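Quick one before lunch.
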Amino acid sequence: MTSYVTCQTPGDTSWFTHDRFGMFIHFGLYAMPARHEWVKTNEKISEEHYDLYFKHFNPDLYDPKEWAKQAKAAGMKYVVMTTKHHEGFCLFDSKYTDYKSTNTPCGKDLIKEYVEAFRSEGLRVGFYYSLIDWHHPDFPIDTLHPRRDDADALQQNEGRDMHKYAEYMRNQVTELLTNYGKIDILWFDFSYDGQDGEGDQSWMKGKGKNDWEAEKLIATARSLQPDIIIDNRTDIEQDLWTPEQYQPVKWVTHPETGELVTWEACQTFSGSWGYYRDEQTWKSPEMLIRMLVNTVSCGGNLLMNVGPTSRGYLDSRAEDALKVYADWMKYNSRSIYGCTMAEPGITAPADCRYTQSADGSRLYLHLFAYPFAHLRLPGMAGKVEYAQFLHDGSELLFTEGAIDHFSAKNETEDSSDLILYLPAVKPSS
Ligand code: FHN
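Model of the FHN complex:
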């Protein structure tokens, strides 16, 4: 999924664009059924049964310090954790609801411990806050709601007041941005406007910026933490972006302001954001690295997700995936941090990606397939002063626009990345 950080963030977003790589954490009651964070609505689980998860929620092995250490080792520089997902369960001690972690056997404000743990490892901290809330009595039943097919859904929906729910969100965002110190990112999720149900079920319509009272919600956040980076899944600006803008060969600019867009892709190791015990689809180590490289080669950030178990720890599959990043970033992080897409006019060969240092002096060539003896670099003849492998700094000969041999490494090793020093080429200002 791609989310876009708006250019309208008044604060300094240069740290965000420099850091490029963050950890996403989806944790909540849905870790107990362990069948996807949408399990309540996917399986239309009854309120009575879902309350069993609330009654027995006790992540006794919750250890965000351990998560933070692994995120830091993986090269992640910031983190965004769910404070409340669509199920409506709050991982923080809110005074506006009883549906919270402090009222379960867990008994703790999990967000407080999360913030302290990741700050202690030097990561910037963000909050995910769901606009959707399948538990709140004033959140109207709609096309996505678990109760949508209940015989009395229409009657249940009468009297639900979306304005009261919008006020509830503003009150909780006020708590989150008041009680936990400086927060760097606020990640709202998500609008689905205009999708009315079939036929006469217009009461099931989707929800967008007017339903969330998004202008007031964002104004509330900015009044408390003016420099906070806010994504645009409240639908305020969603319509300004179109996927074709994310072409590796183009600087992505805001269609109105012309500013270089800061944007972020979010992804997960498997097919689920929340812990999914029997999940079979896990991305390969190569895919994990390519997703990071590809995102930065298009001028964006990657927010990579983990879903802790309901005991509160990261399972071995998640830990193994984080280790893949740690091993790769050890030698290759300089091709990620402070880098962006290659400047206009520089196009990577097939099965390769370029990332370029912010000052334009270094072009990193990422090999998604190990080339044969020669690798021709279109348009680079006469523009490269020096070339070397990134992993060990060993020199590579570059003549007439081509790296002229790869005999230095056999093909069994991981395809390494290269640095091309381009003192003659400076990005257009
Ligand atoms: O519905 C959510 C989903 O559960 C998850 O939180 C993702 C993360 O980007 N956002 C929504 C789907 O786009």
